[in-house]
Amino acid sequence: MTQSELYSIKIFKLNPDSEEFDEIDIRGKQLFETFDTKSVLLFVDPILSTIWLWHGKESNVRMKFIAAQKASSVRDKYIFDAKINAIEEGNEPDSFKKFLGLYNRENE
């Protein structure tokens, strides 16, 4: 993944206090630094027209529920017709790994 592609990725973290998604600034960070097993993250994937809703293993049911309710508002702001895919930590599909540049396309 090129630097410009990396910076075009939008990543949001569900704030448990405000119950809203806050955008994460990933400039100068490694992408893996954004993952927190207690968090719910949302990734905007303009290439596959997908919203990835990632649930950390230790995120609670309440946060997952709130995230599912709020994900459509983020989707509507960035990619109106995007599909929302909920995924669990440790069970990420290859298409999500490819999106993040963690899976080599040659392995298909």
Quick summary of this structure?
The protein is α+β, with helices and mostly antiparallel strands and 108 residues long.
User: H/E order of the elements?
Assistant: HEEEEHEH
Number of domains: 1
CATH architecture: 3-Layer(aba) Sandwich
Question: Taking all residues together, what is the mean pLDDT?
Answer: 86
What does this structure look like?
It contains 3 helices and 5 strands. It has helices at residues 3-8, 61-78, 94-100; strands at 10-15, 20-23, 40-45, 50-55, 83-88. The protein is 29% helix and 26% strand. β1 (10-15) and β2 (20-23) form a beta hairpin. The longest helix is centred in the middle third of the chain and has 18 residues, at 61-78. It has one domain (3-107): 3-Layer(aba) Sandwich (Severin). It has a 5-stranded mixed beta sheet with strand order 2-1-3-4-5, with helices on one face. The protein starts with a helix and ends in an 8-residue tail after the last helix. The protein has 108 residues and is of the alpha+beta class.
